[in-house]
Amino acid sequence: MAPFATESVLSLMPETDEKKKEPTPSKYLQDYLETLVAARAFQGSNLRNWSLIQCYAELQFKLNGGTKCPVCRAHVRHIIPVRAEKPDGTAKEFPCLCTRCFEAERATSKVIIMKMGDAAVSYFPRDYGATSYHGKTANEISKQAKNK
């Protein structure tokens, strides 16, 4: 038989000041569940995965708060793991990135992947100076606006 701890032994153990976890407000869960239902309309699309990742990250922010960007130490609201694959074949992994560092990595990478569970969203570098749907570049549009 295993010996039982007596009251005297238990009194010697240090007491912990663990904060009891507060129940999740129903509004947060309601928002999250509404997004899950709305995402069913976009089965298998990038928009569906983006919606799910953003909603989950917002729920985590409301429950646990944000963190700091590992690159510049700016505040980050949504903690989403990021993988940056460079053109030379190397890859960097970050627990999260602020918007400025995300865009910098996006500009210098072949692809940026945000992934949580099975949901993944890929971002590719922006094509600066590309023609718009109007057939004009942003510079041509701004020059035309100045001349008016």
Tell me the overall shape: globular
Largest sheet: 4 strands, antiparallel
Cα(first) to Cα(last) distance is 94 Å
Strand arrangement in the largest pleated sheet: 4-3-5-6
Class by alpha and beta content: alpha+beta
User: In percent, how much strand structure appears in the residues?
Assistant: 15-25%
Order of helices and strands: HHHEEEEHEEH
Give the number of helices: 5
Strand element count: 6
Which segments are poorly predicted (pLDDT under 50) over 5 or more consecutive residues? 1-14
Task: Summarize model confidence as the mean pLDDT.
Answer: 75
Percent of residues in helices comes to: 25-40%
**C-alpha Rg, in Å?**
24 Å
Textual characterization of the structure:
The protein has 148 residues and is α+β, with helices and mostly antiparallel strands. The protein has a domain at 26-123. It is built from five helices and six strands. Helix 2 (26-39) packs antiparallel against helix 3.
Task: Kindly summarize this structure in a few lines.
The protein has helices at residues 7-12, 26-39, 46-64, 99-108, 138-147; strands at 67-68, 75-76, 82-85, 91-94, 111-116, 119-123. The protein contains 5 helices and 6 strands, in the order αααββββαββα.
